[in-house]
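Input record (one chain):
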Amino acid sequence: MKLPIAILAGIFAIIGNIPYLRDIIKKRIQPHPYTWLVWTIVSCIIFFGQIAKGAGVGAIGSGAAEIFTVIIFLFSLRYGFKKIRAIDTVFLIVALLGLIPWYLTHDPTISVIIAVAIDLCAFAPTVRKTWLDTRTETPMLFGMNVLRHILMLFSLQAYNIATTLHSIVMIIMNTGMTIIILFKKNMDPESSSG
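The corresponding structure, as predicted from the sequence alone:
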């Protein structure tokens, strides 16, 4: 029963990411390249940490999302958000410095905990950017991420910190992003005209 749920989680990764890529190319949204660079690295760490700690088919959603994360990062270099602020660079440096303890440890659980902390730092530039200009993001990706992570939790073949922590934190963060985008677009009708 876990395999169909895991496959559905992978499908939600595709459903959320393909329109997001389309919106990037059509210049409807602007992903923050710093965030997507860090997410590319962190998602890889989390995917392999989940595999190492027995997630089994439950890691299908992480693997599918990682493919799109790399693609979105590459697209963000050309079509992404260009108004980089000093605070964005601070969060990027903090996130990248967080890779040092990850590299020094050989424990998948500690690696995932560090990666999740880095992931939270990487979210900051995107949250700031979206709060200031809601037109730079769309709720579809973040909403689908919530559904994907919920399904991933149900499809795991082993439950421990390494396999569950990332999904729990991402459910919270992606729900928050979805609410911010929808709230701000409803408060400012001009921002939904992008």
